[in-house]
Amino acid sequence: MASAVNKTAHPFDKTRLEALLNRRFFYAPAFEIYGGVAGLYDYGPPGSSLQANIIAEWRKHFIVEDHMLELDTTIMTPAPVFETSGHVARFADWMVKDTKTGDVLRADHLVKNVLEARLAGNQEARGLAAAPPTEDKKKKKKNVKAAAVQLPDEVVAEYEKILAQLDNYSGPEIGELCRKHDLRNPDTNNEVGEPQLFNLMFASSIGPTGQHPGYLRPETAQGHFLNFSRLLEFNNGRVPFASAQIGRSFRNEISPRAGLLRVREFTMAEIEHYVDPEDKSHEHFNEVRDVKIVLLDRHVQEAGQSTTVTMTVGEAVDKGIIANQTLGYFVARIQQFLLKIGINPERLRFRQHMANEMAHYATDCWDAEIHNSTGWTECVGCADRAAYDLSVHSAKTGQALVVRQALKEPIVTEKEVPEWNKKALGKTYKADAGVIQKMVESMDQAELTRLKGELAQGKTVLKTSDGRELEITPEILTIERKTFKQSIREFTPNVIEPSFGLGRILYTLLEHSFWSREQDVERGVLSLPPLVAPTKVLIVPLSAREEFDPLVKEVSSKLRKAGIFSRVDDSNTSIGKRYARNDELGTPYGVTLDFASVQNRTMTLRERDTMDQRIGSIDEVIAVVTELVNGTIDWEAACERLPAYDGVQAIDA
Amino acid sequence: MASAVNKTAHPFDKTRLEALLNRRFFYAPAFEIYGGVAGLYDYGPPGSSLQANIIAEWRKHFIVEDHMLELDTTIMTPAPVFETSGHVARFADWMVKDTKTGDVLRADHLVKNVLEARLAGNQEARGLAAAPPTEDKKKKKKNVKAAAVQLPDEVVAEYEKILAQLDNYSGPEIGELCRKHDLRNPDTNNEVGEPQLFNLMFASSIGPTGQHPGYLRPETAQGHFLNFSRLLEFNNGRVPFASAQIGRSFRNEISPRAGLLRVREFTMAEIEHYVDPEDKSHEHFNEVRDVKIVLLDRHVQEAGQSTTVTMTVGEAVDKGIIANQTLGYFVARIQQFLLKIGINPERLRFRQHMANEMAHYATDCWDAEIHNSTGWTECVGCADRAAYDLSVHSAKTGQALVVRQALKEPIVTEKEVPEWNKKALGKTYKADAGVIQKMVESMDQAELTRLKGELAQGKTVLKTSDGRELEITPEILTIERKTFKQSIREFTPNVIEPSFGLGRILYTLLEHSFWSREQDVERGVLSLPPLVAPTKVLIVPLSAREEFDPLVKEVSSKLRKAGIFSRVDDSNTSIGKRYARNDELGTPYGVTLDFASVQNRTMTLRERDTMDQRIGSIDEVIAVVTELVNGTIDWEAACERLPAYDGVQAIDA
């Protein structure tokens, strides 16, 4: 029987988790011995393994199961690509510079911080307590303080109006605001210069001449789109299909301060699913129709509310809350993936973007938001980019990025078509022959039908633009009804894009997995599922004495053959301490080799969360732990196969 | 019985291979619809899978089997790191600019091309045929032509001397050569400017102020070194251990023109193995001692020869050809890895760097060179970087990057130590007290022994630098013999670095795998081993008719459960054509589902190289193909379990 575990005996303690992650080198600030650089992190051994395991599962869950076409494209991108995609013009924030120190501030943040501080000062001066800053505000920005000065009512109203529509101001308008309201750098009280666009892409230059500007991609998506024709051909010319890519992207964030949640270099996993714009159904939609999801749609948000609803994906699509089956399919698949790797289902929701917050290329977007200590955080975006990207690249390069589809039923149309006796036309009208032809060829079907009628009567008269009248007879022109058959349909596919920020998912997963033992708050545990845990089994010999070596090697090699990643900890410390250290690393199982192992070939098996210990023959324990790691049995079932070990206290003390 | 296959019926045809790789989208020039950028490539679905499989095997072969610590570090690196590592100063080539067009040329290449052309012109003028360009030269550079002008003998001698020591000239010296010999841009006949260093790192800027220059890493190694202390702690403070990383690196090559063999952005896999400089033995060396390798050592090369020798790794280390066991261990493991993924053992050798060609950080280096259509190509470097990197970063940052080891036997030393009666010293000498102390403290052991002797006699006299004589008595100073015990040894580990260029390995593997069917040169085959083949099994239903759907799904799902990656090709073309197409993709096995499958639940199994076909029940065939892909049986063994299928001709015609 498995023991009960109380994982909520101690409230979540972020400081304790961060200390653990740093101490066990899940990740650490990059270039730390050089003082570090904001927004850049290195993953150490457990972080790298965790990330590699998440990626492996992602590849299996999305690429293999849905037969996607994997790509590995280039990060360093020539400027024209991002000029076309709109990133050079629009992937930017407005910045202002302190006129004396040269410090750079994000323009909208400056306006917000200064006006909010003045309003707070006004509250104070009027004897009203300023509203306490929210949890979010406390963490994300420096406290800007303004003197307790009372403001006239009309100024208060004006400030409030500015704040409410802050996202709508252009750079020059913000500059105007700064001058009008004397908004200064709160750190120095210096004036700031004119707002300038600061592009968030890292710029470089390709080749030795300096004449070929390039950018580091801020997303992997353009690499998919530029290869669309090759991908389509690889897929035998058919849609729907999807390309997928896992790789680094870069964003030169102004002032990143949120750990792995906002970084300048990150690993993304992106899918671009190409569909017929007239048919966004999905072949496997029925397999996910009954998946229940928590939704926060745009109408609710636009009404200023945040009430979520729970319904099946099928219901959401049927009711038109999620626009089409393909979007719905991916929303469900994203949720299945996140739960599989260990995200808490009660802290996951799908939020629809409001019209004014969508990226420049998107027509609809649902974010998988996961709740963590900073609030709800976008971890996966699922956007309908429509035909935007393929259209702009096609227009710029002159390359057709389209699907050509044989129509099952050709479209048959009939048209009136002019037929000329060119010889007679030239002979009769000489220089006017061309004019006449042009006039007739540009007529619409109604006019041609009228002309046909008149010609059937013997003649018709055309009026030239300079007012002359030219008589035309059936010898020169006949109008005939002809049949046309169109057997190919050509269209630019729409793109549905699920886009995963792996670092955000990884960090949030670590928060969801962290707890402390009821009896000792210092003993932190990461309850990572075996699927993603960096190490699956810890092998713990009682000591580093040579007599354990053959057994350690045997167990290690048998686990390797079973495809189970294990590590040996033969360090010179108690077994209990070694297990505690590996609880911090999220290692789900441990096996202990002691003198009984040498004598009887038995081994104990320990489960991380419950600290339960069972005992069995070495081969039996390996068989059980293999099934546990592969997820074919759970701990309850394992307990039925292996008797309890009665030396538990001695070892975990 | 398996059929014999003649893979050398047609000579290797690079054009045909390149057409295949392009057509089947193994890889393609990046940004192709924008005209492409030299040295940047995108991997399509088969190339991505092949790369992912090579990486998965690399991870298993090196990281898992040798318990290395995996890292995932940052690409965007602040400039000070590469200033310290020496890359800012030395990771560069000398460039010259055409004074009129601004075209950039590599300075040493300009000198070489122009002087060689003049020498050829001289030969021609003297009526001697110029030596035909070698294979390599034809491919790698544009033909530079000079008029057939006879040169004085002393000029010929001077040119030849310059060419022989071209690698020794500094930039200013090359500038001098250009002026003295009027060396001009051969494309335009314009003069060139002063040589300037062109650094091969891509430069950028981190953050919004433009004040933090950064570079894209040209290797992953520095990311390991900067994290050394954390890694050491993770490994419980012990060496040897290794860190490993797979990731992108960037080099802004001047004019890359060799396909995947010289690119500006590439995936590397690097190991940094940290060892005690006084003990470079390797725990598992005996496991590889008998591995036979082909060697080309530096002495042979320095004697102007290229004769290789074959010997075991054990012999090479014993004879001191390979400097130590750890280098030898990695040479053997590198070879095992390369052969496992399908590199032809007859086209692999290990070449030692000559003293003058080593990178600035290396003290010894062996390259795994693989032969391909361009000649012998460095695909893996295995360098002993000694303590270079850890030392320079430690010196720069003031952080100790050292190993502290408890000595088993403390080192005990005895020393003469001065002991002062400070009160008496101050009272007697006042202002000179400090001077006297300094003089005595800076004495070596021999001087202190002499002093001790004199003091035993009653007194000693010290001469100050300004010529005064000061008398010292035993009341003021005694010299005593004391015992010192050192129980910790501190050292900077040395680093052995195997560094893999995955793109070069991948391309060379494709060359080694390519051949054409004896009966039809148009039918190219890639004989990739199942281990790395993008798709392991092709499922081919006779047609896309619905009656095959349930079987296709069943086979597909059973293979997936067995962990075998398969694809279905139900395109509207003959089975033979579908197989031919998948021979080009390197798919080792194919199963055909036809009407017999529907009636009798049988399936045929086809082997790619022999085109043999066998038949069995669906479950039997799946069992056999699973073993084939996992490498537990070979095709001969499979043939014993499954009878031959007699419909071969009909299907492969």
TrEMBL record, chains A, B:
It is found in: Cytoplasm. Gene3D superfamilies: 3.30.40.230, 3.30.720.200, Anticodon-binding domain, Bira Bifunctional Protein, Domain 2. Belongs to the class-II aminoacyl-tRNA synthetase family. It comes from Panaeolus cyanescens. The keyword Transit peptide does not apply. GO terms for biological process: mitochondrial glycyl-tRNA aminoacylation. Residues 173-534 form the Aminoacyl-transfer RNA synthetases class-II family profile domain. CDD domains: GlyRS-like_core, GlyRS_anticodon. Its EC number is 6.1.1.14. The keyword Mitochondrion does not apply. It catalyses: 2 ATP + H(+) = P(1),P(4)-bis(5'-adenosyl) tetraphosphate + diphosphate. GO terms for cellular component: mitochondrion. Homodimer. PANTHER family: GLYCINE--TRNA LIGASE (PTHR10745:SF0), GLYCYL-TRNA SYNTHETASE/DNA POLYMERASE SUBUNIT GAMMA-2 (PTHR10745). This is glycine--tRNA ligase. InterPro entries: aa-tRNA-synt_IIb, aa-tRNA-synth_II, aa-tRNA-synth_II/BPL/LPL, Anticodon-bd, Anticodon-bd_dom_sf, Gly-tRNA_synthase/POLG2, GlyRS-like_core, tRNA-synt_gly. The lineage of its organism: Eukaryota, Fungi, Dikarya, Basidiomycota, Agaricomycotina. Keywords: Aminoacyl-tRNA synthetase, ATP-binding, Cytoplasm, Ligase, Nucleotide-binding, Protein biosynthesis, Transferase. GO terms for molecular function: ATP binding; glycine-tRNA ligase activity; transferase activity. Its main location: cytoplasm.
